[in-house]
Design a protein that fits this description.
about 350 residues, alpha/beta, Rossmann fold, L-2-Hydroxyisocaproate Dehydrogenase, Chain A, domain 2, 2 domains, six-stranded parallel sheet, 11 helices
Length: about 350
């Protein structure tokens, strides 16, 4: 079926006037998010101060003459932005500033993601899929989903694909192989410095990764390098990751929609519903949004069960899960989770 005869998919991007949005939108319009045969309708959400930037990007998108792009709307109204949306990329978030306590950061972001969750609940399409990019992504996804009572929790995800991609790239650099040779990396836990990039089950050109690198490099170089890569980029670039974050968002949604085949990737998914039993097997309490090994099957993320972790990995995972619990309880104590 020709692309122009298919019904467009509505994609909403928040924070559309920012750097990640700018790096993301042209790739969505070109078909890289959903596939080369799927037309898209873009709905861009910005705060009033960011509207002009988003409107300028919309002008450039029009000038790109993308065959798959059927329309663009720019708004500062969440209800309008999420009306009929099939895919929502929640990029805009309140960054942590000097002197801001973590509780203040969580409260500020709850004021963003709570209302967006309600708007998704009220207006999005019945098949909506949500990816939270804005940090703290895991807990922001939990907040948004908690305010969308009629949307299944598994439809809300947090982006740890950037961490996954970073881990794949660092292992490939170390072993001087193409990234395509690396399979089976896992990111566990929170999208924060406590995350655990795990190569225990990874292969490189079919060989076990743990046979090719030593434990000293893994613990002393690899794990902190991946976990702190965002801070390194800020120090070197003078700004946070933008193009690589947009690329990871594209990867996450493309795999979610089109499937992962026999392999797995990493995503922050709810430990509720169908994933509860598998998540519990890794020590993740029900109700968190935690990065786990996942496959996309029939358009749904499913946690891959049964991986055995050694004591070092388990200690890392427990620490990151504990941080997620602390964040959830902090938000709950502030009265920002309904129920």
């Amino acid at each position: 079926m020709a692309a122009w005869t298919r019904e467009p998919v509505t994609v909403t991007v928040t924070g559309a006037g920012g750097q990640i949005g700018y790096a993301l939108l042209f790739r969505i319009a070109s078909g890289q998010l959903l596939g080369p045969d799927t037309p898209v309708r873009l709905q861009l959400l910005e705060i009033p101060q960011g509207l002009r930037s988003a409107e300028g990007t919309a002008l450039e998108l029009i000038d790109g003459a993308f065959p798959l792009l059927t329309s663009i709307d720019v708004t500062d109204s969440a209800s309008d932005a999420f009306d009929g949306t099939n895919v929502a990329l929640l990029v805009g978030a309140r960054p942590r500033t000097a002197g801001m306590e973590r509780a203040d950061l969580l409260e500020a972001n709850a004021a963003i993601f709570g209302p967006q969750g309600r708007a998704i609940n009220e207006g999005a399409a019945s098949d909506v899929r949500v990816l939270v990019v804005g940090n703290p992504a895991n807990t922001n996804a939990l907040i948004a989903s908690s305010h969308a009572a009629d949307v299944p929790r598994e439809r809300f995800t947090a982006m740890t694909r950037l961490d996954h991609n970073r881990a794949v790239a660092q292992l490939a650099l170390k072993l001087e192989v193409p990234v395509a040779a690396v399979h089976g990396v896992i990111i566990w836990g929170n999208h924060s410095a406590t995350q655990y990039p795990d190569v225990t089950h990874a292969t490189v050109d079919g060989r076990s990764a743990t046979d090719l690198v030593d434990e000293e490099w893994l613990e002393g170089v690899f794990v902190p390098k991946v976990a702190r890569r965002g801070a390194e980029i800020i120090e070197v670039r003078g700004a946070s990751s933008a193009a690589s974050a947009a690329n990871a968002a594209i990867d996450h949604v493309y795999d979610w929609v089109n499937g992962t085949g026999d392999g797995w990737t990493s995503a922050g998914v709810s430990s509720s519903g169908e994933n509860a039993e598998a998540a519990a097997g890794y020590g993740v309490p029900e109700g968190l949004v935690c990065s786990l090994p996942v496959r996309s099957v029939d358009g749904e993320w499913r946690v891959v069960p049964g991986f055995d972790e050694g004591p070092i990995a388990q200690a890392h995972i427990e620490a990151s899960v504990a941080e997620l619990v602390e964040e959830r309880e902090a938000v709950r104590a502030l009265g920002l989770l309904p129920g």
